Amino acid sequence: MSSERIEELKMRRQKKNVKKKNQLPLGIILAIVAIIIYVIILRHNLKYSIFWAVGVLIGFVLQRSRFCFTAGFRDPIVVGSTSVLRGIIIGLIVCTIGFVFIQWHFLQINPNANLSDIPGSIYPVGMHTVIGAFIFGIGMVIAGGCASGTLMRIGEGFLLQLVVLVGFIIGILLSAGGFRFWHNKLIANSPIIYFPKFFNLDIRVVALLQIIVLVIIYIIAYVYDKKKSIMKN
Question: Which domain of life is it from (predicted)?
Fold first, then answer.
């Protein structure tokens, strides 16, 4: 038997002997702490207690699904997998369906409302959008995760992501301090592009077209995954 084969057998035996730590007690303790915090917040502010509960649930879903926007755009190139990307597409479809009802109802009541007043955070689109997206894209690739992925990994105990969190905080403070400058120079002069108004179409028609485009992208991503993904090999 070769030395390589012997080492391989040793490694397999070591893996079998390593006992996995039971994290159930820790999970129960954290769940109790989360409930206690919820009750304390509820006694002072109902709105904040809802935020806390929703935040905990979102964190649980993110951790169990391994959902990360960085992985969604990185994995198709690196390993050929589009599972996370398809999850993002499904999320966009669900959001489109939800917001079309909210915005349609709002516009029925306020037909002459300004674009900035329509629910859904409709903001100007311009060169600042391209620059910000490019810088953020570089940053999240270097950091190895987006904001949600970083927070998720911190909760899992990845201490290196604390450095990324510090970078997030510094970046937010710097951007908040310089927002007025960039707003006056770029953002204020950029147009607000709202497709129903831009194409002069009913919002429901635009939403349907958007869903069709997203479904097509989903199918392309699915076919790409079947041909390129190395995760199943």
Answer: Bacteria
pTM: 0.73
Which position has the token pair 């935040």? 55
Distances (CA, A) of 160 to 148, 156, 167: 15, 11, 12
- 6-24: pLDDT as tens digits: 455 556 665 555 556 677 7
- The dihedral over CA atoms of 129, 133, 135, 137, expressed in degrees to the nearest 10, equals 180
Question: Are 82 and 222 within 8 A, CB to CB?
Answer: yes
**Rounded Cα gap, residues 233 and 228, in angstroms:** 10
Q: Torsions phi, psi of 45, nearest 5?
A: -155, 115
Cβ pair 187, 55 in contact under 8 A: no
Q: What are phi and psi of 112, to 5 degrees?
A: -105, 25
Pick the closest to residue 89 from 215, 212, 207 (CA basis): 215
Residue range 136-146, pLDDT digits in tens: 888 887 887 77
Name the 3-class secondary structure at 121. coil
Q: Which residues contact 218 (CB under 8 A, 6 or more apart)?
A: 86, 89, 90
Amino acid identity at 49: S
- How far is it, in rounded angstroms, from Cα 123 to Cα 72? 24
The ranges assigned to domains in the chain are 1-65, 67-228
DSSP 231: T
> Distance between the two ends of the chain, CA-based, in angstroms?
28
